[in-house]
Task: inverse folding
């Protein structure tokens, strides 16, 4: 069993608890041990790096240093946390002056970061490290006829990371391949790489709702039964603000938004409650029907 330092981040402790539950359960089925980072702290979320980049890097460095003490690579389910950790790690391992400055601060917590940790998103662990063949072997309830719209969002693929080609960054397929391994059908839609608006709902509501409307309409146009996401903020925006979009634009969207780990769990034979289902604002009727073999 491969072990990773698991960084849940703030969202998975609260509004994205279903993501946390399904992630841990699916990982166990795939022979992956997620060892939660002891005494982890917030990664700085989306805005902090724009306020003070050095302090934002220091927040991430503390988590990386704790993972390094355990000789483990770090995995984050939240795309925002993954992005922050990945780029902080990149800066710390390529800028000796920055690393020295931040390690001086880490001494207050009896920590030091030497740069040996690799940072991964949870989907990378499943799709690349575990592998699609091993995932197929665990599928006991193929989600036949279920049309799943994979929503990458921004942070999984942008900015382009080292070792990723321009073609792969502009037209990724790993999410679709994962959906296919579960027996479902990836719904090919144009908005899969667009931003959900992030925190824009707090500063420019109409612009945010317009972005969400376009995303939802794109998925509806290809008759998707559900949108699968890998980010708590994306999930919240797409699900919680559907009613606002409908009131603003006179639409009638009722699109379920689930985490990719929930869909994986159902395909692997978990009961809906085990996969963190049951508290959705939009009931995933078609998903549950497939899970029951109907």
Result:
């Amino acid at each position: 069993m491969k072990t990773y330092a698991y960084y849940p981040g703030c969202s998975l402790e609260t509004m994205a608890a279903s993501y946390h539950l399904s992630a841990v359960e699916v990982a166990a089925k795939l022979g992956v041990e997620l060892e939660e980072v002891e005494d982890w702290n917030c990664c700085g979320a989306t805005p902090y790096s724009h306020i003070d980049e050095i302090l934002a890097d220091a927040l991430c460095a503390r988590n990386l240093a704790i993972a390094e003490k355990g000789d483990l690579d770090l995995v984050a389910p939240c795309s925002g946390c993954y992005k922050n950790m990945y780029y902080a790690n990149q800066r710390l391992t390529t800028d000796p002056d920055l690393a020295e400055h931040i390690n001086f601060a880490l001494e207050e917590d009896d920590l030091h970061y030497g740069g040996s940790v690799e940072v991964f998103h949870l989907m990378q662990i499943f799709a690349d490290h575990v592998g699609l063949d091993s995932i197929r072997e665990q599928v006991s309830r193929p989600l036949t006829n279920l049309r799943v719209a994979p929503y990458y969002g921004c942070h999984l693929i942008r900015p382009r990371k080292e070792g990723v080609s321009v073609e792969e960054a502009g037209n990724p397929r790993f999410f679709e391949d994962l959906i296919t391994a579960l027996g479902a059908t990836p719904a090919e839609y144009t908005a899969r790489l667009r931003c959900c608006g992030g925190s824009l709902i707090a500063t420019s509501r109409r612009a945010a709702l317009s972005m969400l409307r376009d995303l939802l309409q794109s998925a509806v146009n290809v008759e998707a039964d559900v949108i699968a996401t890998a980010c708590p903020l994306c999930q919240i925006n797409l699900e919680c603000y559907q009613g606002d979009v409908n009131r603003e634009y006179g639409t009638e969207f009722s699109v379920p938004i689930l985490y990719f780990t929930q869909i994986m769990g159902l395909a692997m034979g978990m009961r809906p409650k085990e996969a963190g289902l049951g508290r959705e604002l939009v009931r995933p009727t078609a998903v549950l029907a497939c899970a029951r073999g109907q």
About this structure: DSSP finds 13 helices and eight strands in the chain.
